[in-house]
Write a structure and sequence with these properties.
alpha/beta; seven-stranded mixed beta sheet; single chain; Aspartate Aminotransferase, domain 1; PyrdxlP-dep_Trfase_major; transaminase activity; 13 strands; 393 residues; Aspartate Aminotransferase, domain 2; globular
């Protein structure tokens, strides 16, 4: 049996919808992108949504829209996908890394304040693996120091903290529709905001800086090009992707319900495996389960270990993952500790132990297969092999 780490949930809706832009001849951003944006904004309860080519370009747009550039500093978690840091570099700013909490894999808010300087302008709060960061405390700090907040909610679809959806706490929220995310348009992203001024600016920036979109000019008629008031980008989603997005939104509740049922089954099935810590969070959080990420602890308190001891457990984790792979079960490390990667390690002279909890998460996380169409047979096989491989240590 071969079990993938994830699988997009497509059916006849996507089969039919993706052909409609081809048949109409309107394949750039058009009515399907508009409908997708409307459905998404309604689901997350926000005023404005802008479909983009990826979450990475949405994050880049967010920084540009907030006028972040050279000599500015942006606080980001040190355990996140590299795109979070890359967009900061691309606007000429400096990323300030913040360590994480191992329970949530999100930014440790107790460490943020010590990083803030006169040059700090933004906190990028990452809602990792589908769990909101401690956004209420992050917003309090941002207000205290007059900072902007961008939520990197690439993994955060249908993640909630209290009555608010991820991405709606800060000034701007950014989402991904990569195939490993709960909703998939191939590639693609979404930027959301409740700010009228930011909305107008972002609408132009994503479209080369044009004052009117192609669709609006088409509806209004006329042959003249619009005004260009910004040096913008081509970050527009195609209408074929929008057609997929519309279908994904229409079955979003079904997708999320099935993923949460599977996550609860994992919780129950794995609770007796002392070497594996399953996702944990308090009752005010609703997990979006983009991934089901566990911590391979080897039955030890990882928070109190040295780098050398973490490295020893890392070897055991890697052997464990190879055993699962040999049984046809795909796994992944959760994501990476960006401060350990070549570019950032060398440019900012960083050591692995500088952000030790991020380093532990990098070396010890395991993402297990999770997708809405996962069968009982597939699920039971994964669980049986998890137990079998642990017994063969």
């Amino acid at each position: 049996m071969n079990i993938p780490i994830s699988k997009p949930y497509f059916d006849e809706c996507e089969d039919e919808n993706i052909l409609k832009p081809l048949h109409s001849g309107w394949v750039v951003q058009g009515k399907f992108v508009q409908e997708f944006q409307t459905l998404f904004a309604s689901h997350v309860e926000v005023k404005y949504a802008h479909a983009t080519t990826s979450c990475t370009t949405a994050l880049h747009l967010a920084l540009v829209a907030l006028d972040i550039g050279a000599d500015d500093e942006v606080i980001i978690p040190s355990f996140t996908y590299i795109a979070t840091a890359n967009v900061v570099e691309h606007v000429g700013a400096k990323p300030l890394f913040c360590d994480i909490e191992l329970d949530s894999f999100n930014m440790d808010v107790s460490k943020i304040e010590t990083l803030i300087t006169k040059k700090t302008k933004v906190i990028i709060a990452v809602n990792l693996f589908g769990l909101c960061a401690n956004l209420e405390e992050i917003i309090k700090l941002a207000k205290k120091y007059n900072l902007k907040v961008i939520e990197d909610s690439a993994c955060g679809f249908d993640a909630w903290l209290g009555q608010k959806h991820s991405g709606t706490f800060g000034d701007i929220g950014c989402f991904s529709f990569h195939p490993r995310k709960s909703l998939c348009t191939g590639e693609g992203g979404m930027l959301i905001t409740n700010d009228d001024e930011l909305n107008s600016k972002i609408a132009q920036l994503k479209d080369h800086g044009a004052s009117k979109s192609d669709m609006l000019r088409h509806k209004e008629g006329g042959s003249l090009l619009p005004e260009f008031n910004f040096a913008g980008f081509n970050y527009r989603m195609t209408d074929m992707q929008g057609a997929l997005g519309v279908c994904q939104m229409k079955k979003a509740s079904e997708i999320m319900c099935k993923k949460r049922i599977l996550a609860k089954r994992y919780d129950e099935a794995l609770k007796e495996l002392n070497f594996l810590q399953v996702p944990t969070f308090s009752v005010e959080y609703v997990h979006g389960y983009q991934s089901y990420v566990c911590l391979f602890t080897d039955s030890q308190d990882v928070r109190n270990l040295t780098k050398e001891k973490i490295d020893i457990i890392n070897i055991k984790r890697n052997i464990f993952m190879k055993k699962l792979e040999s049984c046809g079960i795909a796994t992944r490390q959760g994501t990476h500790a960006v401060h350990t990667l070549g570019f950032y390690k060398e440019k900012y002279d960083l050591k692995s132990e500088d952000f030790l909890m991020s380093y532990a998460a990098d070396r010890l996380t395991i993402a297990l297969p999770l997708y809405p169409q996962m069968s009982d047979e597939e699920f039971d096989y994964v669980v049986s092999q998890l137990k079998s491989c642990s017994n063969s240590e």
